[in-house]
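Rather than argue in generalities, we reproduce a single protein record, letters for residues, whole numbers for local backbone shapes, just as it appears below:
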Amino acid sequence: MGDIALLGFGPDGWGHVLLRAGLMTLAVSLAAFFFGLVLGTLIAWGRIAGNRLIRGLAEAYTIVLRGVPDILVIYLFYFGGRQVVTAVGTALGFQGPFDISGFAAGMLAIGLISAASQSEVLRGAYQAVPKGTIEAGRVVGMTRLTLFRRVIAPQAMVTALPGMGNQWQSVIKESALVSVTGLVETMRQVSVAAGSTQEHFLFYAAGAVIYLLITTLSDQVFRLAEKRSLRGHRQGAI
């Protein structure tokens, strides 16, 4: 089963680097999720309220990003991004070498992938808001911003939260793919530790525990958010 002391925080233990790697996983996942949330909101708006061109572009984006393998998107941003940055920098007269960080490439790639799925969740949540409620807001003279802030957003959030929780869990698992960029997150660090010590089972099991801890705690946070969002709604009394 391996020497469990290798997971400790002593001079010969890997505990400190595994902890930092876990925090890096959390950081890149949070950045990607919120980037995806912002972009996904814009895409959902485009599919709901945009003209024919905007709707077509939004739908095409969703189809492409949900159909292309995640690892390919990460490679495109990391290795392809270097070429783009180099070409732009050279054209502007700057001296190289030019590079793009693994964190930025991974965050952007996973965020773009997540945005396609989050937009579907948000669009569905908007469509679940009763049309009569929206019409009532318009009748009493609410502006679009007020209507969205006081009527649409609170009701849509109740519907969207479970789906957004699932998207967050997906982002955490997809963050393991960022290890191909050299970013020292959980998957990268456990691979290095396993190769250095030849304790493959021990360290990959430790990596599984780290991911499980993050996803379990995240699930509890989203459950609490769902419970709070249901206050004052009929569903909350069921």
Remarks:
- The chain has a mean pLDDT of 87.
- The longest helix spans residues 15-49.
